[in-house]
Design goal:
The structure is a homodimer. By secondary structure, chain A is mainly α. Chain A contains 6 helices and 2 strands. Helix content of chain A is 58%, strand content 8%. The longest helix of chain A is centred in the middle third of the chain and has 13 residues. Chain A is globular, with a radius of gyration of 15 Å. The termini of chain A are far apart. Chain B binds a DNA duplex through helix 4.
Chain lengths: 103, 103
DNA sequence: TCCGGTTGCTACGGAATATGTAGCAAGCCG
DNA sequence: CGGCTTGCTACATATTCCGTAGCAACCGGA
């Protein structure tokens, strides 16, 4: 059972990726893992999301091989996940500019 | 009135941005506007989303000054929206790699 | 052995959000 | 006038999310 990715039946990876990341809390969770591994409850507290959804998103991210659970330290980005995060880092600086422009 | 962004009360722009983009169809819509302006129904057909949600997302993106409506040609990215898209372009190449790794 | 704490994770009922179909009013072209 | 496209909306249904509570497994004392 291929856990079909919502809406994207084209088979184009970019669509699957945009769909995966375009789910509530997914981007945020990846972001919160940028510096250090985090425990389940840490992620819950940092994001404010319900445990149900934290768990669901972590499961999706694990299946996508972007996140993994190291029992000793907590959830962390995989090598692949780190690459993805690096692509997103410029967003931080840009968001400041964007905030000024929309204020 | 700053149309508070869901869950993110920190006032940090990055959180607001991650939250805005982490809504169903938002990333996808921005992506579909990468090459040319698109009409309302074009976006509907390209994404497969319902008109209700297309309209909602477009309204949000317009308020965020990332998208604007040119009545002659359709919805298009603003200068700001184009900057954001440019940050996302590397995702396309990366997604191919990712697809292979998860296959 | 039992206690308190942490771990990841799940059940469940109610609230919020998305979907799908239909259709509106305004504009344009003939 | 008719027929087409435009952006957009109503409304009932289906899906998803939230918030609270709590589970079983583990660990470190006492």
């Amino acid at each position: 059972m291929v856990k079909r990715v919502r809406g994207s039946t084209t088979g184009r990876p970019i669509m699957a990726l945009l769909d995966l990341l375009g789910r509530r809390w997914t981007l945020r969770i990846v972001w919160e893992l940028r510096e250090a591994p985090r425990r389940f409850r840490e992620l819950q507290d940092m994001t404010g999301a319900s445990p149900t959804i934290v768990n669901t998103r972590l499961a999706e991210l694990r299946e996508a091989k972007l996140v993994e659970l190291d029992e000793a330290t907590g959830y962390r980005l995989t090598a692949l996940g780190n690459e993805l995060l690096r692509l997103f880092l410029p967003l931080h600086a840009w968001s400041e500019k964007w905030a000024k422009a929309t204020a």
